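Last lecture ended with a question: if I hand you only a sequence, what can you say about the shape of the protein? Today we answer it with a concrete record. The protein is Putative amidohydrolase. Below, first the input exactly as provided, then the predicted structure, then a couple of comments.
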Amino acid sequence: MTSDLTPLYRTYSLPDVEPHLQKHSVTGVVLVQAADSLAETDTLLDHARTAAIPTAVVGWLPLADPSEVAAELCRRADDEWLHGVRHMIHRDPDALWLTRVGVENSLDLIADAGLVFDAVAERADLLALLPGLARRHPQLTIVLDHLGKPPVATGEWQPWADLISEIAAEPGVVAKISGLATVSGENLGQPGWQPYVDHALAEFGPHRLMVGSDWPFTLTTADYDMVWETTADTLSDLDDTERAEICGGTAVRVYRPAGQKDPSNKEKYD
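The predicted structure:
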């Protein structure tokens, strides 16, 4: 993290966001890594252990090295909070990192351990890799972060829309409605977001979608309350059951913040 991202150039912890969680009746959270290091994973786990509400962690493991991943999974086998793994694939200089043999072997290991894989696929070339990845790893739950960063600022539609349809055709993939504020430009708000959320709803359905705050990164553009309220506005045409799925049910099934990591408990999303 560098000082050019002024709102982020400080240390954040759960107490900083707790007033907003209480305001919006949020009863559980998922902490997701923002740095590809084991130190980041350990820091998030430390936060989770002392959290006042049920918390799951999506950390980082060295997925390019299956032997190291196996060792880390063994070391962390009794950890109650680690429920997912992410690598910042959009920042990796290797655009085909997801197709490396070592990475693919590691994804099988984390699937066997009952962990999910968060895919921060923010470009068309990365989105295009996900259908094949899902087919090669049918036991792995893949979470598409930030709806694949749709082009809200420009109002463009393709190739994002077709790629989302292809990804949603794979039953092991769920998606997160998050990160839209930082790609909105002058289209920040419900009118700009609605077409993209509607397409995700049509393709994934409420039972394979979840909301995310993208906090604190979203502070570069909008505060927690604005993101939560705008997201809620995009879901206003749904019934209570559908909104409950997106605003909590899907995340609980996928990340199991208070549950077990037993892969035999993996929910079916098709």
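Comments.
1. Residues 64 and 103 are 5 Å apart (CA to CA).
2. Strands lie at 29-32, 55-59, 82-87, 116-119, 142-144, 173-177, 209-211.
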